[in-house]
Specification:
- This protein is an alpha+beta fold.
- It folds into 2 domains: 167 residues, no CATH class; 43 residues, no CATH class.
- It is 30% helix and 26% strand.
- It has 6 helices and 7 strands; from the N terminus they run E-E-E-E-H-H-H-H-E-E-E-H-H.
- Strand 1 and strand 2 form a beta hairpin.
- The radius of gyration is 23 Å and the shape is flat.
- The two termini are 40 Å apart.
Length: 223
């Protein structure tokens, strides 16, 4: 999935499903970088500290990194590939790109078949399948472990074989922090590095604001 042709070439965002057994199956490079992204952060606090009845000693306590959700829309369009007679686009339209997104929500069929076989021989307890670790790559400075929680696909055009050739996918992502992942997960350490980078940037911002306050008075901070 890729970006509009801009005067300055920018890197493309991507979702990467880290699956050593099939590394390409979970790679979704955005064809067009979204024009906007909505991020929502909710403080992670002890139970009962919100509203009446919460213990005063817990009012400022944090139990972990905030719960962050990200909403964005990506576009997929096979027009250029069809104009170039790309064999895959001619045969399948954008089915492969949409399938790569959808596979981030599916358990592996091999695991489903294995569980079916275990059920057939009387195994009572089956371990739920784990999705591969998924990373949102949005420039070198933002590589986040995420879980794709839901998305909707709006197919907007079709070829003569009814293959979709243009679509928009609205994605809902939940960022996974060290509060969600085991210390043995690479995502645990990726998020910790992300937080440390944020702390560094926040310090730079505070120094800049302090400098403006000294040189221009308090009003200078808000200019």
């Amino acid at each position: 999935m890729t970006g509009r042709t801009d005067a300055v070439r920018t890197p493309r965002g991507a979702l990467v499903g880290v699956d050593p057994a099939n590394p390409l199956a979970g790679l979704v490079v955005f064809q067009y970088n979204p024009d906007e992204m909505t991020r929502r952060l909710v403080a992670r606090t002890p139970e009962g500290d919100e509203g009446a009845g919460g213990a005063r000693s817990e009012a400022l306590r944090l139990t972990g990194a905030p719960i962050e959700t990200i909403s964005l829309a990506v576009e997929v369009d096979a027009t250029d590939q069809l104009a170039d007679a790309d064999p895959e686009a001619v045969l399948l339209g954008i089915h492969p790109q949409l399938a790569a997104l959808e596979m981030l929500l599916y358990p592996k069929s091999s695991v489903v078949l294995e569980n079916m076989a275990l059920t057939a021989v009387g195994t009572i307890e089956l371990v739920p399948t784990e999705a591969p670790l998924t990373l949102l790559v949005w420039g070198a400075g933002r590589v986040l472990p995420v879980r794709l929680t839901s998305f909707s696909i709006t197919e907007q055009a079709y070829d003569t074989q009814l293959n979709p050739i243009r679509a928009r996918a609205d994605l809902e992502l939940r960022v996974l922090s060290y509060s969600d992942l085991s210390v043995t997960s690479p995502g645990h350490h990726l998020f910790l590095a992300h937080q440390i980078a944020k702390e560094t940037m926040a310090t730079l911002s505070a120094r800049s604001a302090a400098g403006r306050a000294v040189t221009g008075g308090i009003g200078g901070v808000f200019r």
